[in-house]
Amino acid sequence: MKAIRVSEHGGPERLRLESQPLPEPGEGEVRVRLEAAGVNFIDIYQRTGLYPVPLPFTPGLEGSGTVEALGRGVRDLVGCDFAVGDKVAWAGVPGSYAEYVLASAEKLVRVPEGVELRDAAAVLLQGMTAHYLVRSVYAIGRDETCLIHAAAGGVGLWLVQLAKRAGARVLATTSTEAKAQLVRDAGADHVILYGEQDFKVVVRDITEGRGVQVVYDSVGLSTWEQSLACLSRRGMLVLYGQSSGSVPPIDPARLAAGGSLFLTRPSLFDYIVGREALTQRAGEVFGWLAGGDVSVRIGATYALGAASEAHAALASRQTTGKLLLIP
Predict the structure, then answer these.
(1) CATH 3.90.220.20 fits domain 2-124+269-326
(2) Cβ-based neighbours of 33, under 8 Å, separated by 6 or more
(3) Less Cβ crowding at N or C end of the chain, within 10 Å?
(4) Cα–Cα distance list, 133 to 219, 236, 317 (Å)
(5) How many whole angstroms separate alpha carbon 175 and alpha carbon 95?
(6) Residue 197 contacts residue 124 (beta carbons within 8 Å)
(7) Which fold has domain 141-265?
(8) Phi/psi-derived region of residue 251, left when phi > 0, alpha when psi is between -120 and 50, beta in every other case
(9) What is the pLDDT of residues 169-210, one digit of tens each?
(10) How do residues 28-40 score in pLDDT, each as one tens digit?
(11) Domain residue ranges in the chain
C-alpha cells in the first residue's frame, strides 16, 4: 500500500509518499480501506515535533472508509459488532494518511445511512471537538454571549452553529470579508475582521462593557491576552489550539485581577474516553449532519501524495472548512 511517512521533523516537505506492507489486523483490530483522511493542526504539530511522536511515522488521526478485515475477538468487544463491508469513521487512529489503516475496533464508529463517507471524515474530529467545547468544557446557554476565534475554519464553523443552537449570542473573528460571509451564513450575530479592528474594543462595545462569558480560542499566542480582556467577571478562556504559537507561562494572579477568570486547555481525547462517550458524541454529530441541522464545508480535497500541499495550505490560515486527503 501507499502511505505518507515522516522520517525527520520539519516542514511540509518532510511528508513523503512511500510503499508500506499491507497491515494485518491483530487481536481486537480492524483493517480499513480509506475513503478519505482529515487534515488537522495536530498533524502539523506532530510533523514539526511540537507534539513528539517517535520517528518514522505515518501521520493522520482522522478518516473514514470500509472495513476490509477483522482481527480475532473484535466481535466480542462491547459495541464493536463490525463486519466486512461496514462503513466506519474515526478520530484518534494514528497512521490515517494511507490507503489502509489498522484501527483498534473500539476507536471506530459506524457511519449511519444518510451520511457520505467523505463527509464523515470531514466532520468527526472537528464536530466532536465543537460538541465537547460547547457541551462539556463551557456549556454555553441561552442569553449568554461567546467569542469564537478563527470562525471560518472547520471547528470554528461548527462552534458557531452549535452555539446558536444552544441559544447563545455569537461574536466571531476572521480575516477577510469572504470568510466573514461564511461565518454569517453559519449564524454568527457579529463578525469582526481582526486585521481591521481591535477585537477587544469591538467586543467590549457590543457587550456594553460587560464582556463575554466564554472565548473559544484556537489561535493561541497572538490572541490569548486580548481574549482574557474580553471576558466578563468569572468568564472562561478555552484555549483548544495554538495555530499562531504556544501561549507562554501565565501568572495565576492575572486571572484574579481580570475578575476571577477561568482558563483551561482541554483536549478532545480526554472527552471521548470509553466506548460510551465516543459513540454518544459521534452519534449526535452524525445525527445533526444527517438531519440537516448543521452543515459541513469541505474546503478542498488533495490526493494522498499532495499531503505537503495540504499542510502548507492549512498552516497559512487562508483555508476555510475542512481539508481532506483522498487515497
Answers:
(1) no
(2) 65, 66, 68, 99, 100
(3) N
(4) 15, 12, 21
(5) 32
(6) no
(7) Rossmann fold (3.40.50)
(8) beta
(9) 999 999 999 999 999 999 999 999 988 999 999 999 999 999
(10) 999 999 999 999 9
(11) 2-124+269-326, 141-265
